[in-house]
Amino acid sequence: MTRDAKSRDALLRVKDVFIKRPQTAMSSIQGTAVVEEGLRCSFTQGEHSAVMDLPEIMGGDNAGPTPGFFGRAGIAGCVSIGIKEAAIMAGLAFDRVSVDIETDFDDSASFGLGTASAAPLETRLTIHIKTAVPASEVSALIDQVLGRDPWFLALRDAQAVKTQIQVQG
Predict the structure, then answer these.
(1) What is this structure's pTM?
(2) 119-157: b or e for each residue (b if 16 or more CB lie within 10 Å)?
(3) φ, ψ at 28 (rounded to 5°)
(4) Environment class of residue 109 by beta-carbon count within 10 Å: exposed (0-12), middle (13-18) or buried (19+)?
(5) Running DSSP on this structure, what letter comes out for residue 91?
(6) Any residues with CB less than 8 A from the CB of 95 and at least 6 apart, and which?
(7) Sign of dihedral through CA atoms 130, 131, 132, 135?
(8) What are the tens digits of pLDDT across the range 82-127?
(9) At 81, which helix (H) or strand (E)?
(10) 106, 116 in Cβ contact below 8 A?
(11) HSE-up of 62 (CA within 13 Å, CB side)?
């Protein structure tokens, strides 16, 4: 059995569970980022962890990629996996899916300089598909995926973000 076939079987099992018990599709995921000495940040979610830092020129130790790296990786990874997943579910052979992401910033805004927002000014995705499937069919599938991809939508659409502050002595 191919890796794509195994993925399809697993995806169909999960979809079947969601159809039979819709409440199981609801989830909340919690993770924790910790910065102590310097600017090195450790993020842990369940059994996985990642280290982030800033380059030395920004006061960090360059002990890991910047937080923006992981943000861009999350979006590009979610879109590329979502496209491959949708292709597998549709029975389409996509040999390779890759997503280039490019983001523009006014970096001075993160220092409170000027009037620009520190949010990205523009983000561009270029989606590359290696397949014999006709381009019109590929485009239609990608449109469907982008309409339901959580991290693409989190970037594209405003959402409620709530903060709570707890100060410990």
Answers:
(1) 0.90
(2) eeeebebebebeeeeeeeebeebbeebbeebebbeebee
(3) -130, 135
(4) middle
(5) T
(6) 130, 131
(7) negative
(8) 999 999 999 999 999 999 999 999 999 999 999 989 999 999 999 9
(9) helix 67-90
(10) yes
(11) 4
62 vs 54: CA distance, rounded Å: 5
Nearest to 107 by CA among 95, 90, 119, 93: 119
Helix 135-146 to helix 67-90 angle, to the nearest 10 degrees? 120
Which tens digits make up the pLDDT trace of 146-163?
Answer: 999 999 999 999 899 999
How far is Cα 83 from Cα 144, in angstroms, rounded to an integer?
Answer: 9
68 to 15, 25, 45, 57, 64: CA distances (angstroms): 32, 28, 18, 16, 11
At residue 36, the 3 state secondary structure works out as coil
